[in-house]
Design brief:
Blueprint (H helix, E strand, L loop, with lengths): L5 E4 L9 H16 L3 E6 L11 H11 L9 E2 L4 H13 L3 E4 L3 H10 L5 E2 L2 E2 L16 E4 L6 E5 L3 E5 L1 H4 L4 E3 L7 H11 L4 E5 L6 H10 L6 E5 L24 H11 L9 H16 L3
Parallel strand pairs: 1-2, 2-3, 11-12
Antiparallel strand pairs: 4-7, 5-6, 7-10, 8-9
Length: about 290
């Protein structure tokens, strides 16, 4: 029976799936099936310079080989830019976003002048230089004006979470200097447009949640339920990713790939076929994370 649950897997097509991204895909699919809901795939190709031609189609083939087929036609962010601009225009009209003329060097200099030259996850905490206007300089980007105070939310796996975005991140970019809309804005607009009720994704994305909640509130959108899954780590102890040389997922044996992904999610689902494994895994997931 289909419920009001709508989940999604949203990979960036910077290359084919690897073991870590299969874990996120599988977890989101299992959660949707355990809730009797719909599972969508959204190819997040908003950052076009980083995308690899054909990678989105390859990801869809890899998912299908593992029995993970979306319930609706896949969405592509590169075809939805008008929606992102409409949202940005609304934020600008409401005084919640503003144009920014600062380069990275400008931000570094401003932080150094304030004795605050520090990086957060290799990103500079924006000091609000252009909140008062561009002072005759051309706009390079557009930023969201982060309100002060903690943002609180509950993660289904990680528990209570909070972040003071204004202090820890600063006013974050909504549209970049190259004219492309930023991930934070695109994902919020897409989740709302697609009616997403539950977000299941890797723990490396948990840090984005507070920014996305602020945008949801500013745009009058609902906030989904969040569950951030364990990460697959490489030999160096860091998150397995395309950036650190993660090998493409070898799908000569999809059942083995699913079994390994299930181990990361602490799911035991012994079976002799992909279909039987997925069936058992749904029951194991429901027993652990049940409908919420």
């Amino acid at each position: 029976m289909i419920t009001g649950y709508r989940g999604r897997f949203a990979p960036s097509p910077t290359g084919p799936l690897h073991a870590g991204s299969l874990v996120a895909a599988l977890a989101s699919w299992l959660d949707a099936r355990a809730h009797g809901g719909a599972w969508l795939v959204r190819i997040e190709d908003v950052d076009l310079p980083r995308c690899v031609p054909g990678a989105g189609e390859e990801i869809l083939r890899q998912l299908a080989a593992c029995g993970l087929v979306p319930d609706e036609a896949p969405a592509w962010q590169s075809r939805r830019t008008a929606l992102y601009q409409q949202a940005l225009d609304r934020l600008l009209a409401a005084g919640l976003a503003y144009p920014c003329a600062c380069s990275r060097k400008d931000v570094e200099a401003a932080l150094a002048a304030q004795g605050m030259a520090r990086a957060r996850n290799d990103e500079l905490v924006y000091p609000g230089t252009c909140r008062g206007g561009l002072r005759g300089r051309p706009a390079r980007a557009w930023r969201f004006q982060a309100p002060p105070g903690e943002v609180f939310w509950a993660d289904r796996r990680l528990g209570p979470q909070s972040q003071d975005v204004a202090r820890e991140v600063g006013d974050f970019v909504l549209r970049r200097a190259d004219g492309l809309h930023a991930y934070q804005l695109a994902v919020v607009v897409d989740d709302a447009n697609q009616g997403i009720t539950h977000v299941v994704r890797g723990a490396d994305l948990a840090d984005n949640t507070a920014r996305q909640i602020l945008l949801q509130r500013a745009l009058g959108l609902n906030t989904p339920s969040y569950l951030h899954t364990p990460l697959v780590l490489g030999a160096n102890g860091e998150k397995l990713s395309k950036q650190n040389g993660a090998a493409p997922l070898a799908l000569g044996d999809p059942l083995q790939a699913l079994t390994q992904a299930g181990e990361t999610l602490q799911l035991a689902a012994p079976a002799d076929s992909v279909a039987d494994w997925l069936h058992a895994a749904v029951h194991a997931w429901r027993a652990r994370w049940g409908p919420t």
